[in-house]
Structures are given as C-alpha cells and as structure tokens.
Amino acid sequence: MKVEATVPPPADRLKNFGVNLWVEFSSLAVEHQATNIGQGFPDFVPPDFLQEEVKKAVALPSANWYTRSMGHPRLVKELAAEFSPLFNREIDPMKEVMTAVGAYEAIYAAITAFINEGDEAVVIEPHFDCYAGDMDLCGGKLVRVPLRPSSKEDATLARNWTLNKAEFEAAFTDRTKILLLTTPHNPVGKMFTLEELQYIGEVCKKHNVIVVSDEVYERVVFGDNTHVRIGSLPGMWERCITVGSAGKTFSVTGWKIGWALGPAHLLTQLQHVHSCATFSAPTLLQEAVAGSLAHQRPLAPTPDSYFSWLSAKLEENCRKLADAFSDAGCVPVWPDGGYFMLVDTEPMGWDFSESNTGRCYDVDCVKWLTREFKLATIPISVFYGEENRHLSGRYIRVCCAKSDETIDKACQIIRGLKKKSSVVS
After folding, report:
1. DSSP 351
2. In Å, how far are 50, 93, 334, 338, 356 from 326, measured between CA atoms?
3. Which residues make beta-bridge pairs with 332?
4. How far apart are CA 290 and CA 296, in angstroms?
5. Chain centroid to CA 289: how far?
6. What is the DSSP string of 327-346?
7. What pLDDT shows up at residue 151?
8. Peptide bond connecting 184 to the previous residue in cis, omega within 30 degrees of 0
9. Strands 240-245 and 176-182, bridge-based pairing
10. 125 - beta bridge partners?
11. 197 Cβ partners below 8 Å, 6+ apart?
C-alpha cells in the first residue's frame, strides 16, 4: 500500500492485508470478458415472487425509514417462524435473531464480539478468506485444521474429505474461544454429517468454545444429503451462533441481507458491534425478504418450492460442469451441496514452472484459463494458510449457481481444453 509521507501510516492491524483476492480475480475476468464460473454470484433473474415483494415494500413508507437495529421487526419474526422448527425450539424473534449487512457482517460481528488480542479461533480449512481478515483486525490467531480425502481415489467425493480427530483436538488450547464452521462447505462442497457434528460439538463443549456456524448455503442440498444444524444438537444452542444469508437463500447476493441466530447472551454482544458498524441493514430489502419467506413457507413441502427448484437446478448445473471437466481430462470432486465444486487439473499435465510468478500453481492456472480461454475460475490455495497451502494441489474452484447460458458456454470452453500444455503464465 502506497502511503503519502505527509499523513500517518495505517494501523498495524492492516499489515497482512494486500489486494483482495476477489478484486484481483474479478478484475481479471472483466478485463478479458471471461465466462465467470469462479465467483459465487448467481447471474440469473431473481424469482417473480421476490420481485413482487420488492415492489410492495418500496410502496410502504415505513420500509424506506431506518428500522430497528437488531433487525426489522417483520423479518426477525419471519426468521423465527422459519427456523424454530428446524432448531426444535421456540426462537425469540426480538432476542435470538439479529439481521446484518450480509452474512459477511454477521461473521465479522461474531468474531469482533468475542476475540481479544492473543485469543485463538480454530477453523477448518480450506476456508473462506474473510475469517482470516476478521481475526487479523481483532489481533487474534487463526488455528487451521485441514480437511483431507482419505485417499486419492476417495478425493472425488466431497463427503470423503474429513478431519483427523487427533489433529482437530490438538488445535484447541486454553486460548481458544471460537470454532469457525462452514456447512455446506466452501470451497469443498462437503456437508458435515450428524455424526461429524456431534463429535465437533462434544469437543467444543469440552473446551468451552463458541461455535460460529456459517450455513449460508443451507438451501442447496444435492441428492439424499441432509443439512444438519449444529445449533440444533443437544447442548449446542447455548454456545452456537448460526449465520445465514438472504443473498444465498434467494439468489440475490447483491442485496447483502444476512442474519445470526443464537441465544440472547451471545447475540447481545454481536449487537454491540453491529450498532457501531452499520447500525441496521436496509429496511426495504429486509421487508422484501420477510415477504418472500412468508410466501415460500406454505410451499416448502411441495415441488413448487423455490428451494426445491434451486437445489435441483444447481445440482443439474454441477453435473453439466462435472461432465465437461471429465470429458476434458480433469477430475471433479462431486459436492454434497452448496454453490461450489472443486476440480483437480493434475491429469492435464499443465506446467507453469517457467512463468516464474512466485505464485502457487492454481493461481497461475486460473489466470492462464482466464486470459487464454476466457474462462474465469478461482484458485483454492488462497483458502489455505501458509502451513497447509501445499494441500491445495492442482485444484481449482468453480461455481454452479449460474444461468443456463453461462453454464453451457463454460462447458463448451472446458471441452476444448487440452492436456500436457507447457505454458508461460
């Protein structure tokens, strides 16, 4: 960062910040007018009922004012009604639900509310990059425990990427305050099973740790998989903050409406951070999300549900991408759910060693695909810390939450990829 000599330097807590990876790779995609199957933004039109709810909301004078800081009254009531049966408890909408400017802010508020300088948080990696940034801002230490496939052959299914229990338990110390959990997982696509979450929960109870469970992809479930909420397990509600997203739920990521669910003694602390950061999320969009949840609830058990369509559509998109990559010679990692799929490019024999960029293989690979083939993907080495970055291997991440046009165009490009190219990035 260039700083003019006439002004004070930036805060030390920004020392680990550089060019944001999303800025770097989205700018490259725009520059080369690439078909973007890297970033997790749906590029299809929102459902009709959502558009109607926005029209109704904008005509309400109260929907254009500041609203209650902890959450627009109608939305927190709808969220409580939606999630109470899923957590097997009556959630108090005024004390146990908080809305935020996206799940991003909810996670930031959770980390900021509980992490002091020198405190630790355990995270399962690869992990979304904002966790590390939030910990840096608080002066905390992120302790990473990787998912690993049990064998090279088993690596083709996300469910086979598991924790080493000894490694996981060794990560907890008397300084650990938070476990950062993501299910469905980004970028692996793994959905943690009931047995896995029961084990994780017992470890957290043993060490008196708060769980921040990032469940923004909860509505996208493939096949016969089931989304299990760790906060619904016995003894876990009291120590669990569950984060959700209207952007991912309704495929409108630009709305930036998120929420946190949990016991009042935890959410009160998040509210302190939220009230000093953004104070409240946009009232109009909260009103529209509330109306959309109310619209969908009666349809939930039927094929007419938007969520049924969303899971089926994204699974179909994932299958198309997986088939195309397989035809080209790559090895896809079939996800349990969520927006993303990993793809192993190792069989392609691509070599970027002569590029001398000093970056990981997957970064060079993604840039090359963007420039030469106009196909934008995301490297996964950026989701690892330095110690385990080698585990990223030759994987890249692709997103299945895209329009038919984008998916079909991407598949056409993918099938044109060739093996054993020695390239200079």
Report:
1. B
2. 36, 47, 11, 20, 29
3. 343
4. 10
5. 20
6. HHT-EEEB-SBSSEEEEE-G
7. 83
8. yes
9. unpaired
10. 146
11. 183, 228, 230, 233
Q: Peptide bond preceding 126: is omega within 30 degrees of 0, i.e. cis? A: yes
Look up tokens 């608080």; give the residue.
Answer: 138
In this structure, is the dihedral angle defined by the CA atoms of residues 54, 59, 65 and 71, taken in order, positive or negative? negative
Note the Cα 124 to chain centre separation in Å.
13
Task: For residue 404, give the amino acid letter.
Answer: D
SS3 assignment, position 245? strand
pLDDT in tens, 234-280: 999 999 999 999 999 999 999 999 999 999 999 999 999 999 999 99
- What is the percent of the chain where pLDDT is above 90? 88
**Rg for the chain, CA atoms, rounded:** 21
Phi, psi of 393 (to 5 degrees): 50, -125
Element (H, E) at 145: strand 141-146
HSE of 218, CA atoms in CB hemisphere, 13 A: 17
Burial 42-61 (b: 16+ CB within 10 A, else e): beeebbeebeebbeebeeee
**Phi/psi zone of residue 71: left (φ > 0), alpha (ψ -120 to 50 degrees), beta?**
left
pLDDT tens column, 150-207: 887 889 999 999 999 999 999 999 999 999 999 999 999 999 999 999 999 999 999 9
Which residue is associated with the tokens 């508020």? 109
Angle (CA) 121-124-130 rounded to 5° is 65
What is the DSSP secondary-structure string of 8-51?
A: PPPPGGGTT--S-HHHHHHHHHHHTT-EE-SS----SPPPHHHH
Half-sphere exposure of 48 (CA within 13 A, CB side): 1
**Residues 386 and 348 sit within 8 Å (Cβ to Cβ):** no
| pTM greater than 0.90 (yes/no) | yes
Between CA 251 and CA 262 the distance in angstroms is 24
3-state secondary structure at position 258: strand
- 60 torsion bin: left (phi>0), alpha (psi -120 to 50), beta (else): beta
